Amino acid sequence: MNRTDSGHAPGHDHGHTVAGWTGTGMALAGSVAAGGSMVAAWYPGLALGAGLVALSACTTWVLHLAGWGKPSGPRPPAERGWRVRDRSAAQGHPGCVGCRLANRGRRTTAPVTTTPAAGAPAVAPAAAAATAGAGALPRAGAYGERAAETEAAL
User: Fold this and answer.
1) What's the CA gap between 55 and 57, in Å, rounded?
2) Which residue intervals of the chain are DSSP H helices?
3) How many whole angstroms separate alpha carbon 114 and alpha carbon 129?
4) What is the reported pTM?
5) What residues contact 129, with CB distance under 8 A and at least 6 apart?
6) What are phi and psi of 102, to 5 degrees?
7) What is the rounded CA–CA span in Å between residue 19 and residue 67?
8) What is the 3-state secondary structure (H, E, C) of 20-40?
9) Helix 18-40 and helix 43-63: axis angle, to 10°?
10) What is the pLDDT of residues 89-135, one digit of tens each?
């Protein structure tokens, strides 16, 4: 089997990154601390261990946003080293929940204008927005395209 410079098969990318290793190490340490504290019945240690596990998720997210993570899917072979920084992190990765939470990479759509049906009374845009039901789907943001497709299907 042919191998790349990183030692992996050509189509494989295991996601070894600084963000991944740091988050995994912190979560492992927090789990061990929480488990040991549970056995010793030391409840402050249990809370500290659980807090370290939560902190590991936040740390991994921040490192991912700083470019030390990876986008979803396999990377090119030259970018598979664990110390290679992801230059596309500032724009956000498509389909990435962490980038969506950080408001990166969101596509905005143009405001939708509606025309009244034949014979229907015209309503001012502000009045139309005020009378839109609570179940109205958003028109802009990450889900704007899906919302328009969903409403069109209905």
Assistant:
1) 5
2) 18-40, 43-63, 97-101, 125-131, 144-153
3) 11
4) 0.58
5) none
6) -85, 5
7) 9
8) HHHHHHHHHHHHHHHHHHHHH
9) 170
10) 888 888 788 888 888 876 555 555 556 566 655 555 555 455 554 44
